[in-house]
Amino acid sequence: MTETPPLTVLADDTAYAEAVQLAVDSAAAYYADGTSTLDDDAYDRLVRGIQAYEEEHPEAVLPSSPTGKVAGGAVVGDVPHTVPMLSLDNVFGAEQLSDWAAGLERRLGRAVTVWSVEPKLDGLAISARYHNGRLTQLVTRGDGSAGEDVSHAIGTIVGLPDRLADAVTVELRGEVMMTASQFEEACAKRQAHDGTTFANPRSAAAGTLRTRERPYVCELTFFGYGVLPPPDDHSDLAVRLRELPHSEIMDWVAAQGVQTTAATPVAGIVAETLERVQERVGEIAAVRPELPFGIDGIVIKCDLAADQAAAGFSSRAPRWAIAYKLPATEKITKLIGVEWNTGRTGVIAPRAVLEPVELDGSIVTYATLHNVADITRRGLMIGDSVTVYKAGDVIPRVEAPVVHLRTGDEQPIPIPTACPSCGDSIDSSQERWRCVRGRACRAIASIIYAVGRDQLDIEGLAENRIKQFLDAGFITDFADLFFLTREQLLGLERMGETSTDNLLAAIEQAKSRPLSRVFAALGVRGTGRSMSRRIARHFATMDNIRAADAEAIQQVEGIGPEKAPVVVAELAELAPLIDKLVQAGVNMTEPGATPPAEGEQTQSGLPLASMSVVVTGAMTGPLASLSRNEVNELIERAGGKASSSVSAKTSLLVAGEKTGSKRAKAETLGVRIMSPEEFADQVSAFL
Ligand code: IVH
């Protein structure tokens, strides 16, 4: 897993003083409204550098130093905490974790046999005070001993009810954050209000929590991770809450109607060995990219109250818990430039060119910028420091500019006034700009795609040939290929009798491809290979697909209310092309599929019904000769859903030779794994 990130090396007292000031300023901004000038990694590096310098030069330690202080000593509040709200110490890898555990067990003089392992939620710590079951006060962590009253946020936090199930007096502790969808909504609201957005979910949550009067309300989410009875309370419940294991206390919290991570794929678990703890760390890390909320690590705690009591606290953190930090998924880097490209469907897409930055295990140099509206909405400029997000397999994206890091030298992003591919005008009536020529602008790209191996699979039709046909005016789209004549082809350079006949035969063969491939060849925006297969299986015929309105299209798994109208509009635009294909005699049905009404019953009898299957590595045995797309087609013929990445939802991984991370991920998640041979056996009727 991760190693300790490097620290900032400080040369002398001046460098040290500057570093302390920078850390103090950053921490202040971070805890105030999330607008820190440093990303988490850079801050950690800096504080480690400060710590190292202080160990070497104890006489030089400044009182304002952030080391050993909760929240870097940044924040003060006026509501005292009943019990200090501490921080957690960090480890950055498996080895450090076992060192920490060994140290703890030495201190306890015994082995820890029950560990609790839960996600480290990336938000803000909050204390929620309930009196006789009613939520009466919300307080931020502040400097750990006193925080700020943010009770105005009561009623806007999902998972933190106004009333508990029982009329009890307790203090809940947990994390307030924004889920991905709450963040989107908050950005849209702020956008509509003042034309700006939030830098990331964490700063959005911080800003939202601490702003008293805002003309719009943004929803937040709470996940509890602890509970405290009043210090002087000796009731049965209070005694139980002090003596029960942490895991059982969390069950009690959930039973009170408060949200814990129990309902998520990263629910807290108890582990009896450090090996199992490590395994769980792997499992949580593996599903991180798919979670609807941010986590920045895993918290490992002694589950038993007796262990916690014996371990005690340092001034900053409990000794019975540790944060296993995961690599940052967001960093700040510079936006150097923006490139514009016209895609296959004529869409003109901007791409950010970044100062290379290491994120979640890879170097990111390019990131998606979506569209022009998005650029203006975020107010991005060339030279801006920007937050860039990447986790797992996701395409890196630029989240927002860090406005307070501007130097004044930033330049506006040049927006193209003509199509970067053909120079014709741009249709800017939609959010996604397109060349007025639409698909025709990059006809060659759409034709290459249509005849590709996973679509019509026309052998011998390389790019130079397609270009030749386009230049000769024989074709304008891929449907025209089916009308090419022997005479036309023979009249071209480098086209002999044999190659002409072979090509014509290959084109003829392509007419009988299943509908799923013909549909994929159309290159409908928002539908790739697997979506095309789902659409074809769902509707069974092209006529059914064309007759479907947005609502009917939404019945296909994976097509939501946003995509459905796009598909309908695209099909209308493609009508002349589809008509031409029909006229050419191209197959327009999906073998074995039945139209929607009866569809449901037939699916359920299939061997892979309702299973999500992922294929990885080189196939062997009966599957050896199949392309990946063909294996996926096989999965879907057998009633399953082919997916490309392993997640908690995966039912089966077919693992061939030379597998890498997918197998490891499936193993950590406990997903069933089969060899290609075993799998071929299961679906032999569909081969
Ligand atoms: S337990 C005495 N559990 O991480 C502190 N904290 O970096 C015990 N956090 O201040 C905290 N998820 O705000 C705990 N599952 C979790 C957590 C968690 C996030 C936060 C918490 C804490 C910070 C330390």
From TrEMBL:
Domain BRCT span(s) in chain numbering: 603-677
UniProt KW GTP-binding keyword: no
One of the record's GO molecular function terms: DNA ligase (NAD+) activity
Record carries keyword Repressor: no
Keywords per UniProt: DNA damage, DNA repair, DNA replication, Ligase, Magnesium, Manganese, Metal-binding, NAD, Zinc
Cited InterPro entries: BRCT_dom, BRCT_dom_sf, DisA/LigA_HHH, DNA_ligase, DNA_ligase_AS, DNAligase_adenylation, DNAligase_N, NA-bd_OB-fold
Record-listed Zn(2+) binding positions: C419, C422, C441
Reactions accelerated catalytically: NAD(+) + (deoxyribonucleotide)n-3'-hydroxyl + 5'-phospho-(deoxyribonucleotide)m = (deoxyribonucleotide)n+m + AMP + beta-nicotinamide D-nucleotide
EC numbers on record: 6.5.1.2
Catalytic machinery residues: K120
Gene3D superfamilies: 5' to 3' exonuclease, C-terminal subdomain (1.10.150.20), 6.20.10.30, BRCT domain (3.40.50.10190), DNA ligase/mRNA capping enzyme (3.30.470.30), Helix hairpin bin (1.10.287.610), Nucleic acid-binding proteins (2.40.50.140)
Main EC class the enzyme belongs to: ligase
Family: Belongs to the NAD-dependent DNA ligase family. LigA subfamily.
Task performed by this protein: DNA ligase that catalyzes the formation of phosphodiester linkages between 5'-phosphoryl and 3'-hydroxyl groups in double-stranded DNA using NAD as a coenzyme and as the energy source for the reaction. It is essential for DNA replication and repair of damaged DNA.
Record's protein name: DNA ligase
Species whose genome carries this gene: Nonomuraea turkmeniaca
